[in-house]
């Protein structure tokens, strides 16, 4: 059985250039238009989204317009960056240059003060994804989420070691970027199953 999931990164949020994890800014008008373009022409039966405003408000609007069910799932929130969350990038760099440099270089070793752990972040996404695929087998799903979530799933589904920069920083995802996955599930007579993910699309509309 085949399940198709379109992951869309949210559009541009209000509030300027900042380290935005759990900080809950809504979309700008430009960001909203980018999302309309990103989903144009896509076919899907169900919408799932992060609870953060930059994802949920647009997803809810789409669900209401189309009469589709909406699932708000906290497993697909962006990583919480703790005391750094919501800080302007340039100001943050001035205050914490060494710590930020370490964090960007090896995020599996260093984390923001009071922030979400690297492996905790990956684990909740992996669990949320597995539950999603198990529950909605055979459906086509639109998942509105975040770049960090999309990179985490990209690494997990392609078996890229998490402790590499390839898994954390080399995949550029603009606002409105899309990654689509086809998940093929084989089930034996005992009910055991194996999922085979296939990258179907990577880019922007």
From TrEMBL:
| Cellular component annotations (GO), alphabetically ordered | cytoplasm
Taxonomically, the superkingdom here is Bacteria
Read off the InterPro entries from this record.
His_Pase_superF_clade-1, His_PPase_superfam, PGM_Phosphatase
Q: Which Pfam families match?
A: His_Phos_1 (PF00300)
Gene Ontology molecular function:
phosphatase activity
Instruction: State what protein this is by name.
Output: Histidine phosphatase family protein
Give the classification, highest ranks: Bacteria, Pseudomonadati, Pseudomonadota, Gammaproteobacteria, Oceanospirillales
